[in-house]
Amino acid sequence: MHPNEQIITNFYKAFQNHDPQAMTSCYAKNIIFEDPAFGKIQGKRAFAMWYMLIERGGDALHIEFSEVQANDYNGSAKWTATYTYGPQKRKVINHVVGTFSFQNGKIVQHTDHFDLWRWSRQALGFKGFLLGWTKFMKLKIQQTTSRALSSYLHKMKSFEVEF
């Protein structure tokens, strides 16, 4: 197994075990993360995102991954997250392809690709079905996740958690 395949495997095993500290130890400090729901985030915000998602997912969060591949510079994996979302506890099954760039034994860029309309139909119900494919809804989702992440970071500072 290529060392960068091992990094990806360690990342997703830690995700399966709800261990954000082990996940983020695979990242460089200046990590650039991007996906349709969060947009582009960097560094501490990317670290905090995994802590928040795992905390919010609780016992309902289940992760599966496969098709890990990597070379000296790039890698990818397919993964599926199953969890409940929002106050209505809607079941979401999100199929994702993660792509990675590596430098000095760390992930420096991580992009998750998934169908935001499919996600929004599951997570938001009828509203997601009607509007989930629009740029307006994508922006609204990114604004909501950005506010949630900012709030989470503020809360963690009050508990003196170090990212």
TrEMBL record:
- Where in the numbering of this chain does the SnoaL-like domain appear? 9-110
Q: What is this protein called?
A: SnoaL-like domain-containing protein
Annotated source species: Leeuwenhoekiella blandensis (strain CECT 7118 / CCUG 51940 / KCTC 22103 / MED217)
Q: Which domain of life is it from?
A: Bacteria
| Residues making up the signal peptide according to the UniProt record | none
